[in-house]
Structures
1.
Amino acid sequence: MKRSSFILIVCFFIISCNSSKRLNLPDRNSAAMSGDQFYKSVFSESRVERETHAKNEILSGNVPQFLRKMVKIKTSVTVDNGKKINAYYFVIPDYLSTGSDKNFARIPLTPMTAQRIADSLHCFLPTRKIVNDIYKKAKVKLEPVPMYAFRDSAVTMYQHNLIIEGQRKLRKGLIAGIKKDVVITEKLSRDSKPDRVAIYSWQKLDGKPIQPLYTGHVNWYVDYSHGIRLVYRTIYVNKKPVDYIDILKDKNLRRLLCDEEYCDCYRYDTTDAATISAK
């Protein structure tokens, strides 16, 4: 092979890797449960059983194909010397779901289960800024639909998913405005009460969120309105790969991903259900 051809192939490979990302999941078994079947199978299960069931389905590959191809989100920041830094990162186009492309269901999860899944897939949970960036980029923006009875039941979660699908009307593309995001935030390490879950967003069509950044719920609480959006943990800063934690530790680069003062909470602890932050 000529040197010039080899260089072209290498360049194409690098560009391809940086321009698209896919969730590293097993192939979906054709006999796997649909979204409807999943919810019907957990109606009588406990919260803990439902969480375990959902995690196992997702990590075994029972995830729709469309959700595996991540979407690029561009961002930038101007640092102290006036230099503009450009970056981009990748997110899943919808909230974490199980089932097939034709019959899938969004699954609300506790932050501990969401973190375990994120860790397995080289991902992290979004910040408030990332959620806002996603909303601006979203192709499909839907009006939130609050529900009030049996908010933490699987039946209500299933009903809410059906309502969203009725609104979506088979439209495709990055979607937003349909759930409150489970997020990472410095508030988690500074809240007077331990073991919290942080939620944010559920934007109305004018872009204003129903849910401000909030840590009022204990971390095992999850209801129909919660959604899990995964973000690929490698961020491309001026086209160079950087881990998201290294970015959040940098006083200049952190503004690419975070709009809070400290930005020093990186993940939920899956060991003891507490939140880990930098010390």
Note: The first strand starts at residue 71 and ends at 78.
2.
Amino acid sequence: MEEKIVLQTEACRAEIALLGAQLESLQNAEGLEYLWQRDPKWWSGCAPVLFPMVGALRGGRTVIDGRIYEMPQHGLARRRLFRLISQTDSEAVFTLCADEETMKHYPFAFELQVRYTLEQASLRTSFRVFNRGAVPMPYAVGGHPAFNVPLAEGERFEEYAVVFEREETASCPAIVVGEGLIDPSRTTQRLRGSRVLPLSHDLFYADALVFEGLISKTATLSGGSAGHGVTMEFSDFPMLGVWSAANDGPFVALEPWCGCATRTDETDEFTAKRWMRVLPAGQSETHSYTVTIF
């Protein structure tokens, strides 16, 4: 049986798996489960860590230093076993280092540390990326936590909304169905001087909504008569994906991204991708987001 790491406060309980360092449960003190529980009828994930790639590559391939490398959607980390390097009642740190297998797909000497910290009803997830090599290292990183919608019996998906902290006017680019590429030449306005994005299943029939350049640094997913929901603070990330399964999935993912799928107006060069970070040799960077349940 796969080992799970448990963190707990008086207000919240979290479980994390060593496979992918993936959050697999987030409950309040009464045992209400907020995190999607991996029903493959809709989606077999729940909160994968996205590294060193967010989204899809054209044909699943990219070019690094003149060579072609294959990389699966959302990168390598979610399919790898991490090692637990420290743990307390309310915090755990996991690490994944480059090895012979990762070098076949991503030729850099990386270390990725994922730190989960519980403070009352808030869970902070931090990605610390190290360049352990001698050359600059391009990377993208992001989160993909999905939350049950609805959260209480008797509620409906359409009673929920994503509410941004500030009024926004925002358009989202189209996703090329079947390829996962972002087409910036085709956009749909989703917010017009509003904070509220009402949810409906048909929003996601053509894949995710990708927001960029938001004024807001927090977004709240809530609704229904019970008044439960989650608030995400994502100020370290320039993009936010909002996604659910196209077959009327009973969940919504809020995805803070630094980096995104290949755009139709981009080449296949890895370093040319939008919001790609380039980390100098011997340096590290940290990107964090916080989810608060209520």
Note: The mean pLDDT is 97.
3.
Amino acid sequence: MREGAGNITIEAVAKESGLSKGGVLYNFPTKRALLSGLLDQMLAAHREFFEKVPERHPARTLCGHLETVLQPKDVGDDLSMAILAAAASDPPLLDPLRTELTGDLERILADTNDAPAAMIAFLAIQGLRFQRLLSLPDGGADITERVIERLRTMIDEL
């Protein structure tokens, strides 16, 4: 995030991580492989968080998406931004994310009798994710909190 995704190099990653260039290359022979590995790490963290949502929850996947968006801002946002920036020049890099979201969306729609409402909630959550990630205006803390509570209510009613 500090240097910009276009400036990510194997050398810079090695220096930042304290590894040798050869050590980084052993695991990630190309910049694309490195970015792909970072995306895999993000998806694994996302799946890990989902495991914390009770299996009995009727809209577990949708609830999991909302709760992941509400996690405190941390390096994960920086990593997400870097991957998005890199994917702008290499769109297939996001194919694993597309596959993951396709499966999630299939589960979300299968778990409800109101597919349009579930889709509205899913799209609103994705909007919150990108609003936060890109630091876009959010209407202020009060309205954001009310939106989140409304989303929780919608999800619980599905």
Note: The chain has a mean pLDDT of 86.
